[in-house]
Amino acid sequence: MHTQPLVASDPACAVLAASPIAQALVAADGRLFYANPAWCEQIGDLPPAWRTVGHNGGPVQIEETGRRMTIAALADGRRLLSVENIAPETRRLEARLRASEQRLGAALAAARLGTWRWDIAHGTIDWDASLRGVVGLGDTDPTPDAAAFSEWIHPDDRERVDASLQSALTGPDDYDVLFRLRHCDGAWHWHRSRGQVERQDGKPVAMIGACIDLNDLKTTEEHLARKAIELERSNAELEQFAYIASHDLQEPLRMITSYLGILQRRYAALFDERARQYFAYAIGGAERMRDLIRAVLDYSHAGAGPLVSEPFPCGHALADALANLRGTLAASHAAVHADPLPTLRANRTQLIRVFQNLISNALKFRRAEVAPAIVIRARDSDEGWVISVSDNGIGIAAEDHQRLFQIFQRLHAIDRYPGSGIGLATCRKIIDRHGGRIWVEAQAGPGATFAFLIPR
User: Fold this and answer.
1) pLDDT tens per residue across span 333-349
2) Which residues is 390 bridged to in the sheet?
3) Of the candidates 86, 103, 128, which is a domain's last residue?
4) What pLDDT digit, counting tens, does each position of 309-337 carry?
5) Does residue 230 register a pLDDT over 80?
6) Whole-angstrom Cα distance, residue 354 to residue 438?
7) Are 117 and 206 in contact (CB under 8 A)?
8) Domain boundary among 263, 298, 333
9) Cα(210)–Cα(345) distance, integer angstroms
10) Same structural domain for residues 334 and 450?
């Protein structure tokens, strides 16, 4: 491609032969006329695609290598090709940059996110390839200008979009708006667009920003919101049903218990021992049903109506609960120790119920021949105050910790430890309404510790 005769006979070839830059001469018909040593070393032959370059001078990107070539037209019709002499490290950096740009483009497409620029003076909007793909524009489809873009916005959202634009153009705020955008297939998609204003001499000249398609997320949010409303309505109906059913059951149950008692007292002499035992079973069952109905009423009350919370000393709620249990505490010879308790923002009546249920459990599940010992403590945490109630009773197996707070769950036979199986479920419902949580803490040795968190 470069010969000594050409170098000797052609002044242009002689100059190129001494150049450290990869250069070549292309004849008017597109054939490679001469290539200097640097060209032969770095480039080799002239690829067919390069022979179709125009005759006008200017930089041309060489896709095969990522290097740039300058084309200059000579007076005799030939063209001088000059390839930039790029250092190896620069080539590596440029290759890494191209790879990074490709990854960025792929990430933007995957996230359904694109960028845009609005030229305020000319009213034009430029969308990058990712945003065009999100909306469904083809490579040759025109991007809507500022005037036409308004028609792409949902009619119900145009006022909000315009207000955000004007606020950004006239004040310090960024453009940030959620709106529905019509895609090329005619479907409306939720988008969030954010942008910043470019100013010259204090005047807005352009706005640059990004837009992300949030339609899947928005659709999911709306679906969950509908389900939450349906669930809230269903729970309210269930609580109302439980309250009404429990309330209406009390009167006939009271009559059954009352008349069974009358029969047992007035006509006991007429019945043998087996019949009197049957009466005892019937009255005991009715009394358990009465206790269960009252527990269901307590459970439904725990979630009924708005939660009215106010700051009050937590120790006052504990004192009220202990007063309500005074007789049971005395009968079981229980010892109760309480550390100083903090002031909490909560519903006092419901917190009394929590203390009363937890202490009642400690008294109920005590060990035989061992007087109950109950300790109430408080500790501060990042989330709020943690109140714990510990006892020295029979304890709770680790595998049963989660079951405890489910309604109607019992770990022991009712003839050994009577109860409704609703008390701890009621505690959890009350604490949940306060935005906290309740749990059983792991404990070595006998006894159990229940703890609940009340946020500040």
Assistant:
1) 999 999 999 999 998 88
2) 375, 449
3) 86
4) 899 999 999 999 898 888 888 888 999 99
5) yes
6) 10
7) yes
8) 298
9) 44
10) yes
Q: Supply the pTM of this predicted model.
A: 0.46
Instruction: Quickly state the pLDDT bin for 47 (edges 50, 70, 90).
Output: low
3-state secondary structure the chain: CCCHHHHHHCHHHHHHHCCCCEEEEECCCCCEEEECHHHHHHCCCCCHHHHHCCCCCEEEECCCCCCEEEEEECCCCCEEEEECCCCHHHHHHHHHHHHHHHHHHHHHHHCCEEEEEEECCCCEEEECHHHHHHHCCCCCCCCCCHHHHHHHECCCCHHHHHHHHHHHHHCCCCEEEEEEEECCCCCEEEEEEEEEEEEECCEEEEEEEEEEECHHHHHHHHHHHHHHHHHHHHHHHHHHHHHHHHHHHHHHHHHHHHHHHHHHHHCHHHCCHHHHHHHHHHHHHHHHHHHHHHHHHHHHHHCCCCCCCEEEEHHHHHHHHHHHCHHHHHHHCCEEEECCCCEEEECHHHHHHHHHHHHHHHHHCCCCCCCCEEEEEEEECCCEEEEEEECCCCCCCHHHCCHHHCCCCCCCCCCCCCCCCCHHHHHHHHHHHCCCEEEEECCCCCCCEEEEEEEC
Q: Domain check: are 313 and 406 in the same one? A: yes
pLDDT band at 88 (very low <50, low <70, confident <90, very high): low
Among 401, 370, 374, residue whose Cα is nearest residue 388: 374
Q: Are residues 118 and 176 in the same domain?
A: yes
Query: Looking at the predicted structure, is the pLDDT value of residue 375 above 90?
Result: yes
The answer to whether residue 99 is domain-embedded is no
Token pair of 410 as six digits: 């019992």
Lowest mean pLDDT among 139-148, 165-174, 355-364: 139-148
Q: Quick one: average pLDDT of 416-431?
A: 74
How many whole angstroms separate alpha carbon 411 and alpha carbon 108? 55
Residues 384 and 272 in one domain: no
* pLDDT of residue 253 exceeding 80: no
Provide the pLDDT confidence category of residue 63 given band limits of 50, 70 and 90.
Answer: very low
Domain membership of residue 240 as a residue range: 220-298
